[in-house]
């Protein structure tokens, strides 16, 4: 049997009453409603004894003064004092209950008899069998909410979170957690449904919900589409970022090759040194190949070979990013700057957007060769 720590009596009216003292030398050390040893701790033996006594009181029904009727004619005997202390709702029910003399009767309908028995027993000893919890966690959650027994509700939520929530019961748990005001559990079960939609939508719970709460089904389906779209959007954004980063690196490498020379290409106004340090520019090799191709290609016209077309685009992009064409060694930089002045408004907006996005990849790294991001008017 799982042992649950009792709440302190200061926690409110909805807690189990303090058990009576045990015989023996420790009975005088009363503090905050717990029976303590001199070092302040409850021994295992003592807590087991307390628990057993409360269980025995429930099981034996000694001087029970309440009859609880359950579905299908089941009856459970209990003590009004215990029920009233443990649950404010039961206390209210007992006040209104009819009965002869001091004997009163209340009913807890809509839940199977066994679940009511486990629930009432918990009010006595704060204990439950793990097997019973496994089987009855959902009705226990409902009762703990309906009769305001926060400690049991907390245990049920924790138990579901720790493994009792399954693909099979996820839809039921989701619906109940909405009804029982358990937002964390609602979120966890909702997430489980979305992540395992195929399996969950084949369960009985899903089919039952479709019939009883079609709006809820619609909401779940909509949230699934929404999450899918968010996922797609994230992938699209990260792919886009990769492209801007590649373009940024290509721009860096182009300036580097035209200014310093690298591998097989020397700068136009310096001697080419063969014994250079290893190159650190990520895109250098690719740009080097492209420049070599561009220099030798017979189809070197815009709209000709795809490699040349790419080179034209990179040269134009460079001119748009270039901070000072008068010092720049990249071919055609000035020519493009002139061409840009004559371009249409639509083209201008398109290019400015691209330049902004590329510069925002690495805000600092490009200066002084690239224009600053702030200098681009929108
Ligand atoms: Zn290089
Ligand atoms: Zn070509
Ligand atoms: Zn330039």
UniProtKB/TrEMBL annotation:
Domain BTB: 64-132
CDD domains: BACK
GO terms, biological process: protein ubiquitination; regulation of DNA-templated transcription; response to hormone; response to hydrogen peroxide; response to salicylic acid
SUPFAM superfamilies in the record: POZ domain (SSF54695), TAZ domain (SSF57933)
The keyword Iron is assigned to this record: no
An example molecular function term from Gene Ontology annotations: calmodulin binding
Domain of life: Eukaryota
Polar residues bias (residue ranges): 1-10
Tagged with keyword Metal-binding: yes
SMART domains xref list: BTB, ZnF_TAZ
Domain TAZ-type span(s) in chain numbering: 238-336
Region (Disordered): 1-30
Record-given protein name: BTB/POZ and TAZ domain-containing protein 4
